[in-house]
Design goal:
Layout lengths: L2 H11 L4 H8 L3 H9 L19 H10 L5 H12 L7 H15 L15 E13 L2 E12 L5 E6 L4 H15 L5 E4 L6 E4 L5 E3 L1 H10 L2 E4 L9 H14 L5 E2 L2 H14 L12 H9 L8
Parallel strand pairs: 1-4, 1-8, 4-7
Antiparallel strand pairs: 1-2, 2-3, 5-6
Helix pairs in contact: 2-3, 4-6, 5-6
């Protein structure tokens, strides 16, 4: 996760003051404001020159792992006391370097909670389905979104599981919900993830990172082969397959199928939430108040 994403999550999503984020990251306030206003990631930068603290990275990483709350100032003191008495570095450069290493050493963990707060999380996924469209049996990809607190659903069928289908589904789903939750949970599909790294770290492809960064939507990726980490949407996949795609339905066009899916998800709000035994519509009414406005 780079500085642009961190700044947009902290300032746009969480509402943290610019001066606090600027101080933590060792950046000028105008730089932070520029990233807050920009819905596009900064352009590709040429290869960076080695930084003054790079030779001390192993020491800094060790202290961050053993003492997660250690301050940049304390790290600077330890470096001069234990490693290099001649080290000279500005406070701002020290804070910025430590903040970047801290994010890499102790990334935010994704986890599935038993109880969700309104507006806290949305899970989304693709699942293969079949339908007869204009008399032709077609294999389709069903994009499904589920708000974790209310259980409100959105679904959209497309011919492929590609970035166009993902981005279109996300935008149409968020519009149907009327706003943005704090975070989204997705799997490790190649349309979003270029490479699965160690632990929870992922190398996101540039288009997906730019799309989610523009929305200030934090994405947590489920661990490989652990569908339970997005169990809400996995259950919604099966529910929609049972109630819409079995037996195989007939529609005149893909647009007609998607209109039927939208109507089904709207009417599904009358159902009682499977865990809380409360109408989904009542829970969604509370959740909608906590969703962030969509960017214009």
């Amino acid at each position: 996760m780079d500085q642009w994403e961190i700044i947009r999550l902290r300032c746009v999503r969480d509402g943290e003051p610019v001066k606090v984020v600027a101080r933590d990251l060792g950046l000028a306030r105008n730089t932070v404001r520029k990233y807050v206003r920009s819905q596009q990631p900064p352009g590709i930068i040429t290869v960076a020159r080695p930084r003054l603290l790079d030779p001390y990275q192993s020491h800094i990483d060790q202290w961050l792992r053993s003492s997660p709350r250690i301050t940049a100032k304390r790290i600077g003191t330890l470096l001069r006391e234990r490693v290099d008495p001649e080290l000279r570095i500005g406070e701002r450069a020290l804070r910025q370097y430590v903040a970047q290493r801290r994010i890499l050493i102790r990334p935010k963990e994704a986890f599935v909670r038993a109880v969700y707060a309104p507006g806290d999380q949305v899970q989304f996924d693709f699942t293969p389905v079949q339908a007869i469209i204009a008399g032709v049996l077609m294999k389709l990809e069903l994009f499904v979104m589920r708000l974790s607190y209310s259980g409100r659903l959105f679904a959209r069928a497309s011919r492929r599981c590609d970035q166009l289908a993902l981005f279109t589904g996300l935008l149409e789903g968020l519009v149907a919900f009327g706003g943005l939750p704090r975070e989204g949970v997705f799997d490790n599909a190649k349309i979003a993830v270029t490479r699965v790294l160690r632990g929870r770290n992922r190398e996101e492809n540039r288009a997906f990172r730019a799309f989610c960064g523009a929305l200030a939507l934090d994405i947590q990726f489920a661990a490989p082969a652990k569908g339970n980490e997005k169990g809400g949407v996995e259950g919604a996949n099966g529910y929609l397959e049972d109630n819409v795609f079995r037996p195989i339905p007939h529609y005149a066009s893909l647009g007609e199928l998607n209109a039927a899916l939208a109507l089904f998800c709207e009417r599904d709000q009358e159902r009682l939430h499977s865990t809380h035994r409360e109408p989904i519509a009542d829970r969604f009414a509370r959740e909608r108040e906590e969703l962030r406005p969509l960017p214009t």
